[in-house]
Each structure stands twice: as C-alpha cells, then as structure tokens.
Amino acid sequence: MDGSADSIAEQTLFALETRLRRIEFVLAGSSEDPVGDLYARRKSGKESSVKSRLNTLERDLSRLAIKSRTVKDMLDLHTNFPEIFKNVYPATQTSSLSSEEKLSTVLSAAPSFHATSSQLTSIMDTLIPNPSVSADLISLVPRINRAEVVQQAQAKEIADLRRRSAALLERWYLLGIEGVNECFAEWDERALEVDKILSRKIRLAKDS
Fold first, then answer.
1. Per the record, a Pfam family (predicted)?
2. What's the 3-state SS for 99-118?
C-alpha cells in the first residue's frame, strides 16, 4: 500500500513539474528542452525528497508569476474564485442505452453526418473573393454615406412639397369651387327675386 502511494505521489509530482517546466518554456523560453532538463535535475539528486520538490515547485511558480502577468492573473483568479476551476461534470458518465439503441441512434443520424460533410466540403471549395474587390467596396463607403445624407434631405424636401401641395389644393377647393358655388347660389336667389317682382308688376298692369 505504501509503495502504491509513493508511486502515485511520484507520478503526481512529476506531472506537476513537467507542466510547470513546459509553461515556463512557453512563456519565458528558459530551457530548450524543459522535460529533458527536468530529468537531468532529478538524476543529479538535487531534488529527491517530496518536500524539497514541492518547495521548488512553489518557488518556481512564484518566480514565473513575477515574470508573467498572465500567470499572476490566473493565480489571483484561482485564489479569489476557486469554484470556477472545479469540474462540474462527473468523471465518468454512464448511459442507460444498450449497444443496439446506441447503434440505432448513430445510424439514424448518419445522413446528417454526410450532409454536414458535403456542406463543409463545399465551403472549402468556395473561392475567397479578391481582396481588391473588398477594398473597392470599402472605398465607396464615404460616397455611400454622402449619398444617404442627400437622399434624406431630398426625402425631407419632398415631404414638405407634399404638405404645401395639400394646403394649396385645399385653398383652391375652398376658394375656387365652394366660392363659385356660393356665388351661383346668390345669383339664383337674386334672379328669383327679380322674377317675382316682374311677375307682380305684369299682373298689376293687366288688372289696370
């Protein structure tokens, strides 16, 4: 049991050391062969005990956090919000479906796989437009914006002309049609009054 625990501890420490060396190599380029450098340090006997190796890991991580702002931010994020680094999904997920049901599900979805594959192939076969065409379109943007401003001004002017035309048409109707109708009605009334007076005078003349 102790041998198994020591083996697990050894593997865990080595995995942590390897990851740290690789991160340090990517961010700082401190070693041409980070894993080989780790093997060399282990064979030299400089870091044999678990405690010394843990101390070295903490020291190297602190030194790397000083050199890299990204590492420092990640460590601060882990310190302030450790819950976001936890795996919310179970390590193993069991399915209640049988092998036949899984196979049936895969076969029923097979046509969509082929359709998706053909669509992706067609996308890959699509030619990329000439960059000069895009550049020409981009160069037209200022002219399009100016044309839009002119169009808006013309639309406003047309709306004003429509309003003025409607007001003029209303005035013409009131003065030209309604006014003439009222004038004709007044003439009819006056002609009727004259006709009555003439008829009365004619009767009086006949009676005398």
1. Dynactin_p22
2. HHHHHHHHHHCHHHHHHHHH
